[in-house]
Specification:
Elements (H helix, E strand, L loop, with lengths): L5 E8 L9 E8 L4 E5 L6 H8 L7 E6 L2 E2 L5 H6 L1 E5 L10 H5 L1 H5 L4 H14 L16 H12 L6 E5 L7 H18 L2 E6 L2 H7 L2 E6 L3 E6 L1 H6 L4 H7 L3 H5 L15 E2 L16 E3 L5 E4 L9 E2 L4 H11 L3 E5 L5 E6 H7 L2
Parallel strand pairs: 3-8, 3-9, 6-7, 7-8, 11-12, 14-15
Antiparallel strand pairs: 1-2, 1-4, 4-5, 9-10, 12-13, 15-16
Helix pairs in contact: 5-6
Length: 349
């Protein structure tokens, strides 16, 4: 199915016995094929807002419109079968194999066995799980593998919309970063509309095309792209929530290949350095194929930065090496230019 547009129209939820709303007149639109991250402190209504989309939680007032049609026009069970759903604790059935778990919704929809088997194999490959994983049980998998199975199950019937509630929250930091990267790779391939709930602003900035910051009581504080959010927070609450290091966070949104690198004089061993107008005053020794070896002064050419590195990681490496300049190499390891602290300062202007 094609990705769907999603719109919250003054969507409100007041729980019985409460005088204050959990979600208060939430209005925002998620374009088809984009990731909208709902983020905020505990009690801000982000999970409630997401669960109103598939009617796991009924709205008190307002509406939620999926591809031009109110979700209230559909029977809840029918609606949920067409919306992928992945949660923090995964929720795999322990008595079923991986293949059985992934096939849950296709079976409910009456797919034939051959079609289900082909879809399971396709999805396991899509989420980078080995084929032999299909016959294992959840207890035989790592946390990261179980989370991948959960994502595969959510994608089983090729839904136009996916809901993801803290999907990587229970994963250790190293595997969490890998899963985030895998998810973004997957999104590039399948282009689904995604509503993604997290409490982690760094995760929101990394994965979101648009971010909705919710305040206590489910009030929308700001809805913007990560760039806009970090450069122009709407109010003091947003400013505090994104953190005092928001300038550094902006560096996570750009890769080294996105900036204009400086030129340094390149020299091979035994040769005189070239003269001319260079951005970097220090000659860099390269080998016969153009790979950096060392600075002519004798210091190592470290750190070596890759074009696909994000600027924040590059800055961290340069600070660790106590250097203002770092050689940048392409996919073949050849010199592509030089990154400087000044370049990163300019990227924040």
């Amino acid at each position: 199915m094609e990705a769907a547009t999603l719109e919250f129209q003054e969507a409100t939820k007041v729980y019985a016995g409460s005088t204050e709303p959990a979600v208060d007149h939430l209005s925002l639109e998620v374009p088809a094929g984009e990731i909208c991250v709902l983020v905020g402190p505990s009690g801000s209504g982000k999970t409630t807002a997401m669960r109103m989309v598939n009617r796991m939680i009924p709205m008190t007032s307002g509406d939620i419109v999926l591809d031009g049609h109110s979700v209230t026009e559909r029977k809840p069970a029918e609606l949920r079968r067409e919306i992928g759903y992945a949660i923090q604790q995964v929720g795999l059935f322990p008595h079923m194999t991986v293949a059985g778990n992934v096939a849950t919704v296709p079976r409910l929809l009456g797919w034939d066995k051959k079609k289900i088997a082909a879809r399971v194999d396709e999805l396991l490959e899509l989420v980078s799980l080995e084929p032999d994983t299909r016959d294992r049980y959840p207890s035989q998998l790592s946390g990261g593998q179980r989370q991948r199975v959960g994502v595969a199950r959510a994608l089983a019937v090729d839904p136009p919309l996916m809901l993801m509630d803290e999907p990587f929250g229970a994963i250790d930091p190293i595997n969490r970063d890998r899963l985030q990267n895998e998810f973004l790779r997957l999104q590039e391939e399948i282009r689904k509309t995604v509503v993604f709930v997290t409490h982690d602003i760094d995760e929101a900035i990394k994965v979101g095309d648009r971010i909705a910051i919710l305040q206590k009581g489910g009030r929308l504080a700001q809805y913007a792209t990560p760039e806009e959010l970090l450069a122009h927070p709407a109010n003091e609450f947003v400013q505090d929530f994104v953190g005092a290091d928001r300038a550094l966070k902006r560096l996570t949104l750009q890769h080294v290949r996105d900036v204009d690198l400086w030129r340094a004089p390149l020299v091979r061993d035994g040769e005189e350095p070239p003269t001319g107008d260079f951005d970097v005053p220090y000659p860099l020794v390269v080998d016969d194929v153009g790979r950096p070896v060392r600075w002519l002064s004798g210091s190592k050419a470290e750190p070596l930065i890759e074009l696909d590195d994000v600027l924040r990681n590059a800055l961290s490496q340069m600070l660790q090496e106590e250097t203002q300049y770092a050689p940048v190499v392409d996919e073949q390891g050849k010199i592509a230019g030089v990154l400087s602290v000044e370049i990163m300062g300019q990227a924040l202007q």
